[in-house]
Known about the structure:
The strands form 6 sheets. Strands 8-7-9-10-6-11-12-13-14 form a 9-stranded mixed beta sheet, with helices on both faces. A 4-stranded mixed beta sheet has the order 15-16-18-17. A 3-stranded antiparallel beta sheet has the order 2-1-3, with no helix packed on it. The longest helix has 18 residues, at 193-210. The chain has helices at 80-85, 106-119, 133-143, 158-168, 193-210, 231-235, 282-287, 336-348, 373-385, 411-420, 450-458, and strands spanning 3-10, 16-17, 33-40, 74-75, 90-91, 95-100, 124-128, 150-153, 172-176, 213-218, 238-243, 250-258, 266-272, 275-278, 297-304, 307-319, 327-330, 355-361, 393-395, 398-399, 405-406, 425-429, 443-447. Helix 8 (336-348) crosses helix 9 (373-385). It has 11 helices and 23 strands. Helix content is 25%, strand content 27%. By secondary structure, it is of the alpha/beta class. The model has no long low-confidence stretch (mean pLDDT 87).
Amino acid sequence: xxxxxxxxxxxxxxxxxxxxxxxxxxxxxxxxxxxxxxxxxxxxxxxxxxxxxxxxxxxxxxxxxxxxxxxxxxxxxxxxxxxxxxxxxxxxxxxxxxxxxxxxxxxxxxxxxxxxxxxxxxxxxxxxxxxxxxxxxxxxxxxxxxxxxxxxxxxxxxxxxxxxxxxxxxxxxxxxxxxxxxxxxxxxxxxxxxxxxxxxxxxxxxxxxxxxxxxxxxxxxxxxxxxxxxxxxxxxxxxxxxxxxxxxxxxxxxxxxxxxxxxxxxxxxxxxxxxxxxxxxxxxxxxxxxxxxxxxxxxxxxxxxxxxxxxxxxxxxxxxxxxxxxxxxxxxxxxxxxxxxxxxxxxxxxxxxxxxxxxxxxxxxxxxxxxxxxxxxxxxxxxxxxxxxxxxxxxxxxxxxxxxxxxxxxxxxxxxxxxxxxxxxxxxxxxxxxxxxxxxxxxxxxxxxxxxxxxxxxxx
Length: 460
């Protein structure tokens, strides 16, 4: 007979314990241990489960030299920005996890993708565990995404979902969302660690054995991470984060894991009444509201994967009224601000120890590459001296602790993007000069130290 076994599992990290604890030893969270009943079925001695291929035959171990490989086949959507984030399109047999804040537009994006695939004569099964089929139809009518090849199914039981997949035989499956789906054999509630893990494992088996691309929607916690166990992100092939403010129109799709492409790619969309429209030139968006002649504002050419993006960095330096000056940053690592201020104070001679510093990347984009160091330093110095930089200057470079400006990668693409948007001068590391031809009509200024960069950018 099957035996019932009780255990306590952390709903944040999946840590298991035979008894209840107030604080999880795995992640340190309080009051996250929930009792779950596991039914242990006795397994017959000598009985094993085998991995089967799409034809139902047993898969055996084989020498790696005998395995035939082909370039993975991809399905291209009409949204080039999404194709870019996925590494070139949707890979057949892949399992993609997309997460984001409630109301950010995850279901809208996936319904648009479903309709585009259906219009290309691809069968799509949209499984909604949060909406009825009528609600999904109303949203599809509003977006204009109705097609005979788009099948809608409102179900949360994993057994019925798998049965529907076998009946429809789709090319693409959308699960919205994984927190609402449950396995009947698992006694815990939908959305728990056990349910999320088991349902994702079942979907992964379906995707790999049948060659079906599956998108699963994951809810996020208040910290912005995918809800459920961290194992969920390890199991899938690709993890996409849908970012942006709900009260603003621009959305960013960022890949943080991708087994079939780069993890540095980014797609930008604009939310409109009829759905999401892709933004082909994001640099114009990030610079369209730049103030004229304002101190503390600089423009940097940052790389997002293979795409150069021009972004405005703003700094505000003001005398502090506290014992410890405040250092705040939005869009960049907050630890980078005091580091660069220490370099300016020690190597340039700016007295910043009694100044509050506030730094922001305009447009809501997040930058994490070292090539933005020099632009941050120039913004801080510009605000402190109350001297604006030239509107037609673009500043690129990494700053070392000794005050030197170090070379950066893909300098040619960065300069070409700046020239395309009408910038007339680019201040960049001296070691990046040479080996490439700058565009016509743009001045290249090479600098080796932060002091030299400030002389060119601020005139002294």
